[in-house]
Amino acid sequence: FATPEFSLEPELHFFPIPGCVAYRGYYQQVRARGAAALLRQERLDTYIGGVEAYSTLGWFDDPLLNTMLRWSDERFVAVIFHELAHQQYYLPGDTAFNESFATFVEREGLRQGHAARGETPPASDDRQRQQFIELVLASRRRLQQLYASDLPEHAMRAAKQAEFERLRRDYRALRQRQWGGQGRYDAWIESPLNNAKLLPFGLYDQWVPAFAALFEHEARSWTAFYAAVAELGRLPEADRRARLESLLQND
User: Fold this and answer.
1) pLDDT value, residue 251
2) What is the DSSP string of 28-72?
3) What is the pLDDT of residue 73?
């Protein structure tokens, strides 16, 4: 992932089938680190994050690796749901739309799976994850306001770092106040922070509540929901975003 120093807009990469994508994947970590180093020379913020699977969008048979069998059933099924969602619908050129859609399908699929078997989902993990996501998204919103201001560059750079320190303080307070001191995200929060590191939260989580609201609007019918998602995808970008914003407000 890469962003400008004072922006949360991703650097885009074009590929023939998926179109413009907000990240670039490498099969070898050393190559990813080399590419990131070159981008940093252009004064871009960069972040390297591992991924568990890719979808070829139905063009090829996607492999299930033997290392995946070491995962918990919960994580294994979640990844399958997420990647199959991309085969169900994919909008070239809109990473946030695609990943938020797949994330919603993943989470709702898991929820329905637990319900069908009469199981109780791991509520504490879900609650902590959602609280952490909301914390990071709130920080992103404050940064967006900062970058839209007319502060001089040196002042904006200082304010950017102050925001990252605020995010760390807010996380530590949340951990102590509601998580009993459990540090599930300590390694992430204590390592260096920049715009690019916050980028996946905007891509994978930004529109999840909007898709949840759309699912409810379609009476929780997967068939109707997928048709409504495809209809959204046919809208011009500005109209699509306005519709998603409307769904967020009505959630």
Assistant:
1) 65
2) SHHHHHHHHHHHHHTTEEE-----S----TTSS-----GGGGGS-
3) 87
Residue by residue, DSSP assigns 184-249 as TTHHHHHS---HHHHHHHHHHHTTHHHHHHHHHHTTT-HHHHHHHHHHHHHS-HHHHHHHHHHHHH
Task: Locate 86 and state its tokens.
Answer: 């991309």
Q: Which residues of the chain have pLDDT under 50?
A: none
**To 10 degrees, what angle do helices 95-116 and 208-217 make?**
60
- Helix, coil or strand: residue 120: coil
Looking at residue 65, what is its pLDDT?
A: 80
For residue 94 the two structure tokens come to 């809109």
Helix (H, G, I), strand (E, B) or coil at 181: coil
Helix axes 208-217, 237-250, angle to 10 degrees: 80
Residue 203's alpha-carbon distances to 19, 68, 73, 141, 200, in angstroms, are: 16, 24, 25, 14, 5
Strand 2-4 to 44-46 pairing: antiparallel
Long-range contacts of 184-193, Cβ-Cβ distance < 8 Å, separation of 24 or more = 184/128, 184/132, 185/132, 193/164, 193/167, 193/168
* CA nearest to 105, candidates 227, 242, 244, 225: 225
For the question of whether the overall pTM of this predicted structure is more than 0.85, the answer is no
